[in-house]
Amino acid sequence: MRIVDPQSAVLSNIEVLAYLTANPPRRPPNPPPNSRHWVPSPDLRDHNTVVKEIHNYVSRLSPHLQSYPQYTHIPLAELEAQAQAQANYHNNSNSNNKDTAASAPPTLLPPKLLNKPTPVDHALRDLVTRLQPYGLTKGEVLMIVNLGIGLIPAAAAEEGEGEEGEEYEEVVVEEEEGGEGEGGQQLEEMEVDDGATNGAQDADNGGAGSGELAEEDYGAMALLDTVIEEREERLSEADVAGILTIIRETLGGGAAAAAR
To answer: Which stretches does UniProt call biased (Low complexity) (predicted)?
Structure first.
């Protein structure tokens, strides 16, 4: 990641998370024995607290960021092992144990690898490029990336479909019981109404074409209405469907995008 213009640069939450993950904070040296009110130099305690709070925010309030394409050059497990080895090395170097004084420092990533773009860098570049025809502003695209609009976990989607199916079955049972109790006239009226409704829906579907939003996308469109200013005047439902497709193809790739 390279910042070209620091004055106008804006980092998304996933880019901040990627930087802090690739550059974990250093642990302060151990205080000397029998020392009071000792202040380490440099004093990184506040910095470490901020980094910890950012990781807590991502894990508790923005877990969708962790499902984005890989944002580190090496897997997180290996990166955490390197950070732990580096912390152990600094602790051993500050101790008075002579047996561990000869231990070698952990191997760090070469600068050539650090400057290489990660899969999430490619995904963000593709996202910005493909969203340009829709005329979105920088702030709107940034909020879309931070909120992960349109990225629905598969488990949540299946759970929602199951609940909708149960509600639909209950409504059908109630209608059948009501029809049997009130006679055949009400059933005939319901059939006529259903026929008119289905005809209207078929006409609407024919006019809407393939750009019509899926039922599960209306929640994402409602969230886009709060992010994109004057969305109804600037973007149609077909445009919203195209934007959601681009988001899922770029940021929702996960492991597939990481293997690219």
So the answer is: 90-118, 195-205
